[in-house]
Amino acid sequence: MDLITRGNNVIMETYKRFPLIFEKGQGCTLTDSDGKEYLDFVAGIAVDALGHCHPGLMDAMKTQIEKLVHISNLYWSEPGIELAEILTEESGLDKVFFCNSGAEACEAALKLCRVYGKLKKNSDAVEIIAMEQSFHGRTYGAISATGQKKYQANLEPLLPEIHHVPFNDIDALKARISPKTCGIILEPIQGEGGIYPADLSYLQEVRKICDDENIVLIFDEVQTGIGRSGKLFAYQQYGVIPDVVTMAKGLGGGVPIGGIIAKNHVAEVFTPGTHASTFGGNPFVCATAKYVLETLTAPGFFNSVEKNGAYLKSKLEALKKDHPSIIEVRGMGLIIGVEVSTQPGTIVAKAMDKGLLLIGAGHNAVRFVPPLIVSKEEIDQAVQIFSECL
Ligand SMILES: Cc1ncc(COP(=O)(O)O)c(C=O)c1O
Known about the structure:
The chain is of the alpha/beta class. It has 2 domains: 140 residues, Aspartate Aminotransferase, domain 1; 229 residues, Aspartate Aminotransferase, domain 2 (3-Layer(aba) Sandwich). The chain contains 14 helices and 17 strands. The strands form 4 sheets. The protein has a 7-stranded mixed beta sheet with strand order 4-12-11-10-7-5-6, sandwiched between helices. The protein has a 4-stranded mixed beta sheet with strand order 1-2-3-15. β2 and β3 form a beta hairpin. α3 packs antiparallel against α11, α12 packs parallel to α14 and α13 packs across α14. The radius of gyration is 21 Å and the shape is globular. Bound molecules: pyridoxal-5'-phosphate. The site of pyridoxal-5'-phosphate has 14 residues, from α5.
């Protein structure tokens, strides 16, 4: 029996998978079971920040794996502390909670703002405002905060007291705020929704409202964080600092790790027993993530992400001239969406045939989220293939 049939027999069909089996990867290249090579502009859905089999990352993983992998959070170990030190220093926030995925990071943030509301506002302050077209993950709290009905089908009843408002619409947000509001959650650049960046003035006003009304401002940077925007967090591109930021995806360079970083006045409402995770922040994932962060924060790295991102964006913009099916090119750094008037899925399939991996975003965009180490030559190659597929 072939491998895909065996997979279909035993793995739940929660994904519509392409009939491709990958065996190995190096840098921005993946090799399938027939030996065909693909330029990887999906990066495990914005995860493989340093590409595949980065030598330094492999060494960091091997070194830690031979020392200590998991001990639980009943005890201390150095890698998690070192990683949290880097994250707090680089983010301007104060305290970290580690978990294992983006959805779990959002769960932690939602719980944190609910506890904050009860303890620091009033016992009725339980309402959370989230954005239409947002995506926050598949666990119950995260899916309840997600502003896309298609992900919520047959899951009702969802978590109560979460209200959705249109993104980038300050009046709609103001109209929804009440003394019961404890938190606002938004993505500075909506990823799964179709790569829609927030307006600067919008984020500034949201920040002001949260300060005035004692509301916890949560930025979900699971997709935009860890260097993808050209800064460690996209909010640093805007100069608007949240009370809580979520992270996952790029943080572990491929190993599962998520987390939140919060300001002290919010973080302090979590006490022993309020929240926890058995695996969260174990020595193995933290040593791996520490290597990722040290690489990303080394002088020049973010500059090169910004430069390559601008180069990719300008090359995609330039395609508009010959390809009227391109409606808009959106995003910053190495998270770019190309809105097309045709089917994004058809373009993704054609590109795959030609050896380029891309992914859709929302219902009308093709997303480019390559490893952050992508080269100019690889960008040239990807844009050439993409243009042939339009
Ligand atoms: C903004 C955002 N939040 C949360 C998630 C959920 O992350 P995970 O799939 O790791 O649970 C995603 C995943 O795409 C995301 O883009």
